Amino acid sequence: MGGKLKITDTTLRDGHQSLWATRMQLEDMLPILEQIDAMGYHSLEVWGGATFDVCLRFLGEDPWERLRVIRQKVKNTQLQMLLRGQSLVGYSHYPDDVVERFVVKAAENGIDIFRIFDALNDIRNLEKAMQVAKETGKHVQASVVYTISPVHTLEHYVDTALKLEDRAADSICIKDMAGLLSPYRAFELISALKARLSIPVQLHTHYTGGMAIATYIKAAEAGVDIVDTAAGPLAFGSSQPPVETLVRVMQESERDTGLNLHELFQISDYFEEVRIKRGYERGTTRISDMRVFEHQVPGGMISNFADQLKEQQASHRMPEVLEEITKVREELGYPPLVTPTSQIVGTQATVNVLTGKRYGMVPGEVRKYVQGFYGKVPGEINPEIRKKILGKSKSIECRPADLIEPRLEQCREEIGELARTEEDLLSYTLFPMVAKKFFEDRTAQESQGPKE
C-alpha cells in the first residue's frame, strides 16, 4: 500500500488561484505560516502558476520577495512551485537563457521542489527546466497532464512517465487540472505507474465535478505516494479537495496521513476569517460545474470566458461556446485544456461562436499552435482546418525553443537601472510592460518616503 499517505498543501498557490483569482496577499499568509509549517505536510505549494504575474500586475508585490519571506518563515517544510516548462510562469515559450536563470534564481530564493509540466506533454518542452533544476540540487517533479481523449490512453501516460524518469525526474505528478480523473480510472493508472516506475508518484486533481475525494481514496489503495489538498475555506469548487475530509477518511486505513485534525481546523478557521474579510465566496460544485465531465473545460477557464462573454454582452451564449470548445479541441488534435492551450482552444471557440464563421478569423496564437510553436500536438489536426489556418505556411518539427534567440542581455539594456537585481531583470524579461510599471511605481513610492 505504501505506508503513510503524504500531503502537499496547495492553499497558498492553487487554492487561491482557483477560487480567489490568485488574489491572496502576503499579509494574509504571514500570521499562519509557522502553524502550517508545523503541520507535517510533505510540501507547501506557494509559488508559480499565475501567482508571479498577479503579484506584479494587481497586488503591487514583488513575487521574489514573497518567496523569500515565506522561506524565512517556513523552516521545516519543503516549498514547491508550479513551472510551465519552457513557458516558466508566463504564457509563451522563453529562450533557454531565460529558463536557466529563472530556475537558478527560484532555487536560490527558496524553492525545493519544481513541479514542471507542459500543456501538450511534449517532453522536449520540459527538458531544459528539468536539467537546470537538477543541476541546482533541487527535487525535479516532472508532470504528466491528464485529460480524456482517444489519444490519451493508459499506455500514453505510462510511456510519458517512463521517459520522464529516464530524464532523471525525482518523482512524477499526474496533473488532473479539470477534475476528470475518475476513482476507478485513478486506481488503474496509479497501479500501472507504480508497477513500472522506481520513483514516487503524486496525484493532483480538482474538486470541480465532485469526484476528488473518491479518486484520492482509490489512488491511495493503488499506492500513490502523495496527493494535493487545500484548507477547507480554499477547497471544493474548482480548487483541490479539503484536507480535513481526506485526513478523516484515511484515519481508519493503512494510509493514515498522521496529520492532526484539530490543528488543521485551527488553520482553516484562520483562512475562513481571511475569506470573509476579503469578501470571497466558498468553493461550491454546481450542476454547471459537473458538466466538466462532458466538455472537459476547467473551472477557472470557464470563469475567464464568462467574463469575456459578459464584456461582449453575450453571456447567454456560454452553452454554445462550451459545445464549440469540444469541437475545436478535437479538430486541433485533442490538446489537454491547461495553460496555455486552454486559452488557445477557448479563444478560437469564442471567436467561432461570436462571428458565426468557424475559423473565419484565427488569432495569432492559434496559428502558432497549429504550426508547432507550442510543441507536438497529441493527436492529428484536422487536415482541412490546418489548411484553412496555415494556407501554404509550413509547420516546424524542431523543439520550439530552438528557434528563440537569447533575450536576457537585450532586456538588461532595455530596462537599465530600473532593474536593481537579477530577479528584477527576470521579472522584466517575462512581463516587460507589467514589470516596468511595477518598478516605476516602486521608485515613486520610495521617493515619497514612508507613510505617516
SSE topology string: EHHHEHHEHEHEHEHEHEHHHHHHHHHHHH
| Mean model confidence by pLDDT | 95
Number of helices: 22
Helix content: 40-55%
Q: Give the radius of gyration.
A: 21 Å
Q: Which structural class best describes the helix and strand composition?
A: alpha/beta
DSSP summary, beta strand count: 8
- Please state the oligomeric state of the protein chains shown: single chain
User: Uncertain regions: pLDDT < 50 for 5+ in a row?
Assistant: none
Give an overview of the whole structure.
There is one protein chain. With about 450 residues, this protein is an alpha/beta fold. It has helices at about 10-20, 25-30, 35, 50-60, 65-75, 95-110, 125-135, 155-165, 185-195, 210-220, 245-250, 260-280, 285-290, 290-295, 300-310, 320-330, 340-355, 365-370, 385-390, 410-415, 420-430, 430-450, and strands at about 5-10, 45-50, 80-85, 115, 140-145, 170-175, 200-205, 225-230. Helix 9 (about 185-195) packs parallel to helix 10 and helix 16 (about 320-330) crosses helix 17. It is globular. It starts with 5 loop residues before the first strand and ends with a helix. The mean pLDDT is about 95.
